[in-house]
Specification:
Elements lengths: L1 E5 L5 H12 L2 E10 L2 E12 L2 E14 L4 E12 L3 H13 L15 E6 L5 E6 L2 E8 L3 E10 L2 E11 L7 H14 L3 E2 L5 E2 L8 E12 L4 E11 L2 E10 L5 H17 L14
Antiparallel strand pairs: 1-5, 2-3, 3-4, 4-5, 6-7, 8-9, 9-10, 10-15, 11-13, 12-13, 13-14, 14-15
């Protein structure tokens, strides 16, 4: 078993894949599980050690530590020699499948959540992690614009900008992409052109359509990643633009930005959402 303390909420699946990459393990199979507390993973890997191939069945999950006010991300791993895997596959699966925590908290986020309620240009509410600082940029009958920033040791490794438009706004997702691409070019960033892909499996059923893109943006001083979401809720467009340092430079900050955007989208006008859940099946 491998575990790590975290103060900012992240997806357990991202952390698991990050650890396996550090360990030099090749992922052969991966099945994702999704709940209100994020994305989890069931993985099959292999690695050559001393001229032998070792295969591993792995599950990753999170649990909140109320005593220390943080969470643990946990990896449970069962291994055998590759040549024995066929006969031991069921045993390895059961080892990780039925691993349970005696003191499961039922709260599987790394931190508490705060809420925002907007009534102009339309009614919107959502949650965001308590470690982020909220700033309202402007708010009028056409658009509401807010910014969230992640502060760490006098640095800002993550920013999320959110835009909520009125119902009759003529700005669509293609216009937003063009504006972002032009702004990156004006600021001397090199990046692939942002192209939004449709998200077909939407956790928040209040959202009628959702599009996303993730691109790396670079200049002479920085390597960053941009995560863009465009969606419709109750007939009105909204946009989220997350900026983080590159995943390879600071995994935890990148993962915190990605997960925070996920929390906002899942909770948007989702008034009956409960964040206490059982470990995934």
């Amino acid at each position: 078993m491998v575990y790590e303390h975290i103060n900012n909420d992240i997806d357990a699946s991202d952390w698991g894949e990050h650890i396996l990459d550090l360990l030099g393990e090749e992922i052969l199979y991966c099945k994702y599980y999704y709940s209100v507390s994020g994305q989890y993973a069931d993985l099959l890997t292999k690695k050559d050690i001393d001229n032998e191939t070792i295969t591993s069945r792995i599950r990753v999950f999170k649990n909140y530590d109320f005593e220390n006010n943080r969470a643990n991300v946990i990896m449970v791993k069962a291994c055998c020699n590759w040549k024995d895997y066929e006969s031991l596959a069921e045993e390895l699966f059961h080892c990780v499948k039925f691993f349970t925590l005696i003191n499961d908290s039922k709260w599987h986020l790394a931190e508490e959540l705060k809420s925002i309620n907007l009534d102009v240009p339309a009614n919107h509410s959502f949650y965001y992690p308590a470690s982020w600082l909220y700033s309202e940029r402007y708010n009028n009958e056409k658009m509401s614009y807010y910014s969230l920033s992640l502060k760490k040791e006098n640095k800002t490794p993550g920013v999320i900008d959110g835009y909520f438009l009125c119902h009759d706004a003529t700005i669509d997702k293609e216009i937003i992409c063009n504006l972002i691409n032009e702004k990156l070019k004006d600021n001397k960033y090199s990046a692939e052109k942002i192209r939004l892909n449709e998200e077909r499996d939407i956790f928040n059923k209040n959202i009628s359509e959702l599009w996303s893109s993730m691109v790396e943006v670079n200049n002479e001083q920085n390597r960053n990643e941009l995560i863009v979401y465009a969606g419709r809720i109750e007939g009105a467009w909204f946009y989220l633009i997350g900026t983080s340092v590159a995943k390879e430079i600071n995994f935890m900050s990148w993962a915190a930005v990605k997960r925070s955007m996920d929390i906002i989208i899942n909770s948007l006008n989702n008034y009956h959402l409960s964040y206490e859940d059982n470990f995934y099946e």
